[in-house]
Amino acid sequence: MKHIFLSFLLSLAFTGIFAQSSLGINYDHYFTDATMRFDYFHSGTATEEHFSPDRILNDGTWAGSKTILLDDLNRGLYFVEIKDEETMKPIYSRGFGSIFGEWQTIPEAKEQWGTFHESVRLPWPKNPVVLTIKKRNNKNEFVPLWTYTIDPASRQANPASYESPYDSWVLIENGSPNNHVDIVILGDGYSKDEMEKFRGDVKRLAAELFNVEPYKSRKADFNVRVVETPAAVSGVNKPHPGVFKRTPLSMSYSAFDSERYALAYDNRTIRDVASTVPYDYMYILINEKTYGGGGIFNLYSTVAADNKFSNYIFVHEFGHSFAALADEYYSSSVSYEIPDVTVEPWEPNVTALPDPENLKWKDLVEPGTPIPTPWDKEKFDAHSQEIQKERTALRAAKVPESQVEDLFMREKKEMLDMIGGMENKNTTGAFEGANYSQHGQYRSAIDCIMFTRNKQEFCPACRRAIEQVIDQYSK
Q1: CATH for 22-160, among 2.60.40.3250, 2.40.300.10, 1.10.3720.10, 3.40.50.300?
Q2: Fewest Cβ atoms closer than 10 Å to its Cβ: which of 88, 257, 336, 424?
């Protein structure tokens, strides 16, 4: 039972043994105080992938931890490992996700090649290092895909600091970047005349994040900085309704042909803008009302700032990009082709329940709780299917966004009433339906921010997963 052993290791990791993995790595021996950004191209199809280097740049002051250098959380589709070339000792690692990794799961990837620009950020090494990018195989084990040697003294590495032309400001500052989680917030589709609106959106949405546990209790472990990129036009690109625009960060709805999925593919520009300030995690606000957003682990989150559900989306999507949380819903349409569950999912908040006696969040479950845990799934599913039919019809008719919002508000009220009457509404257990799968995958609570738009509350498994990442950057 490999997943049981991994869960055991994770439980040990956060009772003190976690720090042991980075002991013996003297940051000052291996690294300077700068950040190295290694840009590369990631190309391939649904069944193959290739890498080629682009640039090696100075990306500003190192904002990450100088003590927890190795990543023991076992999250992400990909994993980057840095080894000292002389000793081949691992000196830095992090899990991450990518747009390419998601693109591989859509039908388009079966028919044509795709190329995406990506970056790995690490402390600037003093001596040559060996970078290895790994990916999970069909057993969810990391296997090497690409190895590349980086010599920081070579002509290919540009140590010059970037002189940013962008205005920036501090929203929250609680201490040194090296022992705090550092978030940078960018904006796209805000015209020069709308910068005060952007500042207001930043303050409102950040306040919402820190009103939700566990961020609320751990607010002192965060710094938040903001970079402004005024646009020539208001709003961003929306291909589905035929609204086309070009903006500084190239944000666009319709990613992977999903109308509500908002991403940007201009990685170079986004990284240059973000490097104006020290950061670990990135959020991009979209000056739009149309419901939408996105979140990719250790890349960025996005949110449409003017929707009635923007506060919810902001917190939900950050769960993806910050803690690698899986979506717990399964009734909404997605662009991905969902594979059959053959191994335990690596995401910390969902399980295929291969061994009910050893649930991955077993320590959070009260003794005597039935596993799987019963809930009124049939009633919930029937209601969700009706809502999805209405939503699809409204989108097809291209009605004003306010009508879609009204549907979501009605759904929220009906869902709250329904779940409020369920027997195990406050129980931690294993509830079937999660990770886009109606059957065969389970979540820890009936409701959660990662499951519905009902309320701003994470389930126990999600809360713990978030705290583990906060610890990784703040200890």
Answers
A1: 2.60.40.3250
A2: 88
The DSSP letter of residue 14 is: I
The four Cα atoms 284, 289, 294, 298 give a dihedral, to 10 degrees, of: 20
Q: Which residue has the tokens 């908040």?
A: 349
Strands 437-443 and 431-434: antiparallel
Asked if residue 272 lies in contact with residue 211, where contact means CB atoms within 8 angstroms, the answer is no
Tokens coding 26: 């003297």
pLDDT tens, per residue, the chain with 475 residues: 333 333 433 343 433 333 334 557 999 999 999 999 999 999 999 999 999 999 999 999 999 999 999 999 999 999 999 999 999 999 999 999 999 999 999 999 999 999 999 999 999 999 999 999 999 999 999 999 999 999 999 999 999 999 999 999 999 999 999 999 999 999 999 999 999 999 999 999 999 999 999 999 999 999 999 999 999 999 999 999 999 999 999 999 999 999 999 999 999 999 999 999 999 999 999 999 999 999 999 999 999 999 999 999 999 999 999 999 999 999 865 544 555 677 999 999 999 999 999 999 999 999 999 999 999 999 999 998 898 899 889 888 888 888 888 999 998 898 889 999 999 999 999 999 999 999 999 999 999 999 999 989 999 999 999 999 999 999 8
Bridge partner list, 79: 95, 134
Q: Of 120, 117, 121, whose CA–CA distance to 265 is shortest?
A: 117
Among residues 175, 277, 184, which one has the least CA distance to residue 221?
Answer: 175
Largest CA distance in the chain: 66
Domain boundaries along the sequence of the chain: 22-160, 168-323, 356-457
CA distances from 188 to 98, 270, 384 (A): 20, 10, 33
Please enumerate in sequence order all residues whose Cβ is within 8 A of that of 39, keeping only pairs 6 or more positions apart, or say none: 53, 54, 55, 56, 57, 117, 118, 119, 267, 268, 271
Q: How far apart are CA 333 and CA 145, in angstroms?
A: 31
Report the C-alpha gap between 357 and 4 in whole angstroms: 10
Task: Give every CB contact of residue 338 below 8 A, 6+ residues apart in sequence.
Answer: 436, 437
Backbone angles phi, psi at 68, to 5 degrees: -100, 90
Q: Beta partners for 431? A: 443
φ/ψ region of 174 (left if φ > 0, alpha if ψ in -120 to 50, else beta) reads alpha
DSSP for 78-145?
EEEEEEETTT--EEEEEEE--HHHHHTTSTHHHHS-EEEEEEEEEEEESS-EEEEEEEE-TTS-EEEE
CATH class in words for 168-323: alpha beta
The tokens for 465 are 């997963």
